[in-house]
Structures are given as C-alpha cells and as structure tokens.
Amino acid sequence: MNNEKPGYKFKKAHADHYLKVLIESEKFYRQGGNESSEGLAILGREMGQIARAQDWCAQGAHNDIIRARLCSDFCNQAQHILDCYMQPEELKRWNWQGLKAARTLDDYFSYSEHISQLANAALGQGKSYKAVRLLKTALELIPLAQKPETEHLKSKAYILCSLGVAYSEVNQPGEARKVLDNALKIGNELSDDLAKQVAYINLAHIYHHDLDFQQAEFYLNKSLHLSEATGDLSGQSVALTSLANVFWDCYEEDSAMLEKAINYLEKALGFARKLGDSNLQSEIICSLSKCHWQMSNCEIAWDLGVEAIVIVNQLGNLRIRVDAQMNLANIALDKRENDVAKALLEEVVSTGKHIRYDITVVNGLYNLALLADVNKQKELALEYISQALNICNTHDSDCGFDEVKEEINKLIKKITESIE
Residue 142 carries which DSSP code? Predict the structure, then answer.
C-alpha cells in the first residue's frame, strides 16, 4: 500500500465523497414514491464522478486495503439503483472488481454479495445452471461473515429470491417454490417489505412459467397491495406490468382481457413517468406495443415500439434496446415489411452478441433464417441456423433454448427437403 503517493489523499477524499453520494441515491431509490425519482436524479447528475472514483479504487484494490474496501462498497452499498441504471456488462465488471477486492479483505459477506450479483448477471444471459451454482456458493459464505444475525437473514432472503428464479429457469419448480417460501418467511420475520415484494413477484414468475395463471395473479396482487400500502410506485409499476403480462398470456384471444392488460400497463407507465425511471418506461411501452400487436393494432403497436426505441437510445441500455428492436422486428414481419424486419434483426443479432444476450440472438438468427428461406436463399438460411445452433449448444438444457432448437430443427428439415 502506497498512500504517500502525491494526490492519494485527494483521490481518497474524492472516492469517499462520491461513495456517500451513491449511498444517498440508493437510500432515496429504495424509499419508493417521489424519493425514487430523486435517487435516480442524483445518480444521473453524479454518475461520471462516481465512475471515476470507482475506477481509481479498483486500480489499486490488489495492494491497498483502503481502496479495496471502497471498491467493494461501490457495488454492494447501492445494488438496487445500480441494477436499474447501469449497463449489465458494466455492472458485471464492477462486481468482478468488487469480488477481487473482497477476497483481498477476507470479507466473506461482501464476497457473497458480489457472487450473488454475478449470478443475477448469469441469469440475464440465460446461464441458469451457472447462476444456481453461484447462488448456492453465496449462501454457504453468509454464515462465515462476522455480521449480526439480522444482516445474515436479510442477505439470505435476497439470495433465495434469486435462487428461486434460477431453479425455475432450470425446470425445477418444486425447489424454486421451496426457496422462495423460505425467503418470504424471512421477509415476514424481519418485516422487510422489499424482500416480501421480491418474493411475491418471483413466486408469480414461477407460477406464470408453469402456466398456473391463477396463482401468478394471486401473488402479483399481494405484491401490488403491499407496494400500495408502502407508497412504493416502482413496486406498483412492476406488479401492474407483470399482471398485464399474465393477462396477455392467459387471454391472448380475449380482446376484453387484453384491454384490461393495456389498462394495467398504462397505469404502470404513469407511475414510471412520475418516478422518472426511463428504463422502466421503455419496458412498459414495449409491453404496450406487444399487447396492441396481439390485438392487430399494428400501427399503434409500431408507434409505441418506435417510442420505446427513442427512449432506450437516450439511455444507452443495450439490453433493453435489443428487446425493443426485436419487438419492432416482429411487428414489421407481421406487416410484411421484410426489408425493415431484416435490418432490425441484424441489429438485434449484432448488439445481442456484443452483450452476450444469447437467447435473443438465437431468436434473431432464427427469424433471419425464415426470411432467407422465404427469399429462396437456402444457403444463407442454413448459415443463420448453424450460428443459432452453435450458440444453443453452449448452454445447458432447460434454460429456454430447447423450444427454439425444436423450431430450428423443423426449419432445417423443411429447407433440406426443398433442396433435395
């Protein structure tokens, strides 16, 4: 450790100050209501300085325990707002740096927190078995940490919430429900409303995944009522959006229910706008676009899809942009605007590969293969299919890729038969 180097005290004071600013934004964000938008506003104003401070800490964390502690804290003290605000790959990089710093400090609690965040990143990339392994490791580390029991339980509840989603993604719904019930029990014991809300949302996700729409709706309503009671506009927006998605999937041929889904989404959008949460706004507008597309309101769906793209381009969140582009590509295909669809799908594949958003890349390649087949470009179609299968084969089974692989194999059979 060399803290006598010129400029060290100034840079440490700078890092101390901007860590406090980041923690302040997190506290506002987690309070919900107007305070959430204040937290996002603070982060928006100060992110440049925060990033510079974090980078200085990360560069010296290997041989300076002061910088190592700060480096770890830049992630762990503001997980929720950073997850909302930062690019997934950038946040992943911060967590890897924090993990190494925590290892330097022999800080098992922070080490566990970083592993948990990296597991969530793996989930987002479709690497669900890897996420399960990481989250189990995170749980094993918690008892080794020298922290009060309430801190152990709180951290355990959030890790269990993520583990429940991971188990669901690897087709183990029984294990998923068991760990989420445990998370909910801890949330009730600690009177931790946020932990309870996350558990309710994730339980709903599992029942939705299993097509048990009634139970999904039950847990989403519990989450909605809890967020209403606490004035958490962000929680209300997420619950309403999830309820809309349940209605959309369950009643996709029922126009009255789709109208109800649209009403939920419009209400959720109002909350997101009040919060100033542009990420959430773009996701809700995308869902609105999909609902209108389902109701054959293609022009409205297209306009909403474009609006989502405009917002996302201002944010620079590549993952949400890929989702929005994929949505627009589907609408363009439905409108038989194949050249527009092809351009959008090529962007989806290019950007998706860059951020390793593999499931959407595979779907983009599959749709490009369909277009190539329609245009009688059989060799090009098979090239797209080969790329898609190569990506699928890098992932474990039961992680969302099996269904699309089945469709790809059907397309291969169709194309080869037409060539013969």
Answer: G
DSSP assignment of 177-218, as one string?
Answer: HHHHHHHHHHHHHHT-HHHHHHHHHHHHHHHHHTT-HHHHHH
**Residue type (1 letter), 292:** H
The three state secondary structure string of 379-415 is HHHHHHHHHHHHHHCCCCCCCCCHHHHHHHHHHHHHH
Radius of gyration (C-alpha) of the chain in whole angstroms: 23
Sorted by sequence, the CB contacts under 8 Å of residue 264 that are 6+ apart come out as 240, 241, 243, 244, 247
DSSP, collapsed to helix, strand or coil, labels residue 29 as helix
Question: Using N-to-C axis directions, what is the helix angle for 108-124 and 65-76, rounded to 10°?
Answer: 40
Average pLDDT of every residue of the chain: 87
HSE-CB of 61 using CA atoms within 13 angstroms: 28
Q: Say how far residue 416 (Cα) sits from the centre of its chain.
A: 38
Q: Please give the C-alpha separations between residue 39 and each of 28, 36, 44, in angstroms, as whole numbers.
A: 5, 5, 9
Q: What tens digit of pLDDT does each residue of 190-228 get?
A: 999 888 999 999 999 888 888 888 999 999 999 999 999
State how far the Cα of 270 lies from the Cα of 274, in Å rounded to an integer: 6
Residue of 254 and 119 predicted with greater confidence: 119
Question: Tokens representing 382?
Answer: 């098979």
| Side-chain-facing half-sphere of 97: CA atoms under 13 Å | 24
Taking each continuous run of H as one helix and of E as one strand, the counts in the chain are 20, 0
Tens of pLDDT along 6-60? 789 999 999 999 999 999 999 887 776 567 778 888 888 999 999 999 999 999 9
